[in-house]
Write a structure and sequence with these properties.
This protein is an alpha+beta fold. The protein is built from six helices and six strands, in the order ααβαβββββααα. It has two domains: 7-150, no CATH class; 165-230, no CATH class. It is 35% helix and 12% strand. α4 crosses α6. The radius of gyration is 27 Å and the shape is elongated.
Length: 231
């Protein structure tokens, strides 16, 4: 759907009488389940244009699907709007699926009733941020839309859960020695103070380590990008 769901869409899909006085769809978990169940029944009965040999599902878009659609066709969210996604709330993308399928909630607690959401800037167009909304109660201004998408089969490829700690430590050690410790000894030698490079090695080593750590605030090699085929 290029436009978010309104009350008329909800009533129509559930074969209920359209209430023209209220055009705002109240986004809650129960309402979304009802409309997705009705939509799935339509898909199962056959929709022209869908591959009959492919399994399909109807749901809210994942963040990846939403951003892909926004980039290709434009979804036209107005300023100061919130649109709910199918993804569970997470603090980062570690462990996220790399094929666009929604990320499920993998814990226990009150956040199980929340979903990730796209929120637009209150005054500037085209600026969005990832936020979250609760679905256990309706909240004014929250929108939702549905997508018909192929069912992804099999075990998903995921973003690695953690960084390569050994590789990061190795890179840090090399950078500290190359940018800090080695120049700390080379500079006095080049300036004709070779004796100090021997007698004052402790001071030079400490100074080089400090200088090497400081360079981390300005530059470090870019970490490798994890591509889908390598996930």
């Amino acid at each position: 759907m290029k436009e978010p769901i309104n009350a008329a869409d909800f009533d129509s899909m559930l074969n209920e009488e359209v209430n023209e006085q209220n055009d705002e769809f109240q986004v809650t978990a129960d309402a979304l389940k009802s409309i997705m169940k009705a939509g799935q029944s339509l898909i199962d009965s056959g929709i022209e244009g869908l591959d009959e040999h492919q399994r399909w599902e109807i749901r809210c878009p994942s963040e990846a699907e939403w951003r892909c659609a926004e980039s290709n066709i434009g979804l036209g969210l107005d300023k100061k709007q919130v649109e709910v996604l199918a993804d569970a709330v997470n603090s980062n993308y570690r462990g996220a699926m790399m094929d666009g399928r929604p990320r499920r909630f993998e814990g226990i607690g009150p956040m199980a009733f929340h979903r990730a959401a796209i929120e637009t800037h209150p005054s500037k167009e085209g600026i969005t941020a990832l936020s979250s909304v609760p679905l256990d109660r309706p909240i004014k201004g929250v929108k939702a839309r549905l997508v018909i998408t192929p069912v992804r089969e099999g075990e998903p490829q995921r973003v690695p859960e953690s960084a390569d700690m050994i590789a990061n430590i190795r890179t840090e050690v090399v950078c500290i020695f190359v940018l800090g410790v080695i120049p700390s000894f080379v500079i006095p030698i080049l300036r004709g103070m070779s004796d100090y490079a021997v007698s004052g090695w402790a001071n030079l080593l400490f100074g080089g380590l400090c200088a090497g750590f400081v360079t981390g605030a300005f530059w470090r090699p870019r970490r490798p990008t994890v591509h889908y085929r390598e996930g």
